[in-house]
Design brief:
The protein is mostly beta strands and 190 residues long. The chain has a single domain, classed as Lipid/polyisoprenoid-binding, YceI-like (Lipocalin, Beta Barrel). Helix content is 6%, strand content 51%. Strand 8 and strand 9 form a beta hairpin. The radius of gyration is 17 Å and the shape is elongated. The model has no long low-confidence stretch (mean pLDDT 86). InterPro entries: Lipid/polyisoprenoid-bd_YceI, TTHA0802/YceI-like_sf. Belongs to the UPF0312 family. It comes from Streptomyces sporangiiformans. This is YceI family protein.
Length: 190
């Protein structure tokens, strides 16, 4: 895979977009660290390798497409019933309120660095609230483009999930990770 100047499509056919949660509180041993995947998302990256100021990224995630892929830790293994309950909870008013806010969007405002190591600063909109976030990324020069950002849920009006009268709760910070395994040109046929 070669990263050359141009416009690239992003989405589930080219890579993965994951949300990783952690646990907090006295009862954290009872819960799970979750890996949640966006099953429906799309985006576009405009690459100007020698002039990052001319580069840009935009991504849209369908909030109703978030699926629990893995749950580690906890006293018991994560069950299918647990996964279904977590999906329902994600759509709840206190968390993402997917009926009213069907998408999460990210639009870059500044890109710095090189294709091999870069930072993308941009506006992240969740539940109608927009705040800046910085994405850290790397490209290994061969096949894989990957990166991450930390999102503090309460900044966007999301109340981290709690159970057992607050003794178990999700950590406020979640890690959003992306991995692009295949670049697909949007500005010319492959």
């Amino acid at each position: 895979m070669t990263l050359t100047d141009g416009t690239y499509r992003l989405g589930p056919s080219t890579g993965r977009l994951l949300i990783k949660t952690g646990r907090a509180g006295l009862g954290r041993r009872a819960g799970h660290d979750l890996t949640i995947e966006a099953a429906r998302w799309s985006g576009e990256a405009v690459v100007a390798a020698d002039d990052p100021d001319r580069s840009s990224v935009r991504v849209t995630v369908e909030t109703g497409s978030l699926e629990v892929r893995e749950g580690t830790g906890g006293l018991k293994p994560l069950t299918d019933a647990d996964r279904a309950e977590i999906k329902r909870t994600l759509g709840d008013t206190a968390l993402l309120h997917t009926a009213e806010h069907p998408t999460i969007t990210f639009r870059s405002t500044k890109i710095t660095g090189t294709p091999q190591s870069f930072e993308i600063t941009g506006d992240l909109t969740i539940k109608g609230r927009t705040h800046p976030v910085t994405v850290h990324g790397k490209w290994n020069g061969d096949r894989l483009l990957r990166g991450w950002a930390t999102v503090t849920q309460t900044t966007w009006g999301i109340k981290p999930y709690t159970a057992f009268l607050g003794a178990l709760r999700l950590a406020d910070d979640v890690r959003v990770e992306f991995e692009v395994a295949r670049l697909e040109r949007a500005d010319r046929p492959e």
